[in-house]
């Protein structure tokens, strides 16, 4: 019982961990809100998926995929050099070990491993939702200017790249939704900031 309460204390911290992405009110998005958005998207997209899916596993993966950041903290992508990625991985592995030890639940360990391996359909879907939620936040952000402030337009180059789009290609509805989000973001950039997406990805 005490271990469960210790776990709940860790899980609560995810509400206090913030990402770079900003929301429609200008506030930074919490990691917990990001995970909740992913679960919401999974629920409404389910009827449109061409493959059968275990939704219980999807929800579990959505809730767990960033939980180690409650202990290890988020590291923005533009700061992830090779050495930083190694340290990030080590920190998150230690966080997972701590969480699993508290819960004494092999299923939780299996979900962490499943997401990392990206072999199951469910884990690939959740990874796609992870990227899709960031795209949604770009679309909804009160002021898009902040996105271009990091590492010489790093995030715009990634957002409009062909490489990022391939994350969605295994499910047509995901790619269609992502393409529509990119269209709307490009329109906002043009109308609000006078920026052409072709100039952003040079």
Overview of this protein structure:
There is one protein chain. By secondary structure, the chain is mainly α. It has a single domain, classed as Hypothetical protein af1432. The protein has helices spanning 2-13, 31-45, 55-64, 69-72, 82-103, 106-117, 121-140, 154-159, 162-165, 172-193, 197-200, and strands at 18-22, 28-30.
Gross morphology: globular
- Poorly predicted parts: none
Specify the structural class: mainly alpha
Main pleated-sheet profile: 2 strands, antiparallel
Quote the beta fraction: under 5%
CATH superfamily: Hypothetical protein af1432
Task: Report the total helices.
Answer: 11
Topology:
Blueprint: H1 2-13, E1 18-22, E2 28-30, H2 31-45, H3 55-64, H4 69-72, H5 82-103, H6 106-117, H7 121-140, H8 154-159, H9 162-165, H10 172-193, H11 197-200
Antiparallel strand pairs: 1-2
List keywords for this structure.
mainly alpha, Hypothetical protein af1432, 11 helices, 4% strand, two-stranded antiparallel sheet, 202 residues
Summarize the structure.
The protein is built from eleven helices and two strands, in the order αββαααααααααα. It is mostly helical and 202 residues long. The protein is globular, with a radius of gyration of 18 Å.
């Amino acid at each position: 019982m005490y271990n469960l309460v210790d776990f709940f204390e860790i899980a609560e911290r995810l509400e206090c961990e913030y990402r770079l992405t900003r929301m429609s009110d200008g506030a930074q998005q919490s990691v917990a809100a990001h995970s909740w958005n992913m679960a919401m998207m999974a629920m409404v997209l389910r009827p449109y998926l061409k493959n059968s899916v275990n939704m219980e596993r999807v929800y579990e993966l959505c809730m767990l995929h960033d939980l180690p950041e409650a202990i290890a903290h988020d590291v923005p992508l533009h700061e992830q050099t090779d050495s930083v990625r190694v340290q990030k991985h080590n920190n998150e592995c230690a966080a997972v070990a701590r969480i699993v030890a508290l819960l004494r639940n092999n299923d939780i360990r299996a979900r962490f491993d499943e997401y990392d391996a990206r072999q199951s359909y469910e884990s690939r879907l959740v990874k796609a939702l992870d990227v899709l939620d960031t795209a949604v936040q770009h679309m909804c952000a009160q002021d898009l200017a902040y996105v271009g402030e990091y590492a010489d337009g790093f995030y715009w180059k990634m957002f409009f790249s062909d490489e990022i789009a391939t994350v969605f290609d295994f499910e047509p509805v995901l790619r269609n939704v992502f393409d529509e989000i990119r269209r709307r973001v490009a329109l906002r950039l043009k109308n609000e900031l006078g920026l052409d997406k072709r100039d952003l990805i040079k």
